[in-house]
What we know:
4-stranded antiparallel β-sheet; 13 helices; Leucine-rich Repeat Variant; alpha+beta; 59% helix; two-stranded parallel ribbon; 8% strand
Amino acid sequence: MKQNQLNALIQLLDDPDEGVYRHIREKFMEMGLDAVPHLENNWESSEEIFVQQRIENLIHSIKSFDVFQQLKNWKQNGGQNLLNGAILVAKYQYHNIDEEKIRSKINQIKQDVWIELNDDLTAFEKIKVLNHIIFNLHEYKGDRKDYHNPKNSFINRVLDSKKGSPLSIGILYAVIAQGLDIPVYGVNLPHHFILAYEDEFLANFAPEEMATPGILFYVNTFSGGAVFGKQDVLDFLKQIEIEPKEEFFKPCSNIAIVKRMITNICYSYEKVNKPEKEAHFRELLNLFN
């Protein structure tokens, strides 16, 4: 779009006619992120609150749609990288987050774990190292006091506050473990998110009561990395009166994890009575339904 056409559209932002505004909005949405710098410049120069609010809404819509498209592509490509999916969900709320800062913090934790690892450690010993570095040295923990706070579901806020939900703490733990070739993956257990240590060879020698085939044991990251077995999962399902299914014992896909993350965010915004935020994320959830 030529500069004179762009300027003409911006000048029409003060038109009270909603039909005119819808037309302008469509044009800016077609431009995408390229329109944002121009809108930001005009926000600063505008003296009308009405125009500033329209500009803010336009910028928000453009950036949200861009993240929506990125997450759509991530899903269509198989959701290969869990951290990328979690970052995109966070960007849908916090458009200007520093991705490099997020990756740098996670890499520092990963580096601290790597220093303590060696090839002679057993699976249990590796989990013990992960638990010590993540929960003791870096002091991450599950947020039990403010459990339904939506901030507990966003990876950037979890890294800042060092508190999170069972899902977000589990994602952080899994990303670090997988980055060090430790086979720890998410399990979509109802009402609680846990991790499974997957090892086909070792599982052949694991007691039947300890795990399902291919799984050596499970890890509850919301409780400091507690290790437990299959029977504990069965007891939990019995307690919450849900019939056991095979999927409750095996690792799920990254796509399923991110879908659950968005679902949890919608529920959290519902609990704290923020219907606009809830509706915003339900639009994102439509990608997975």
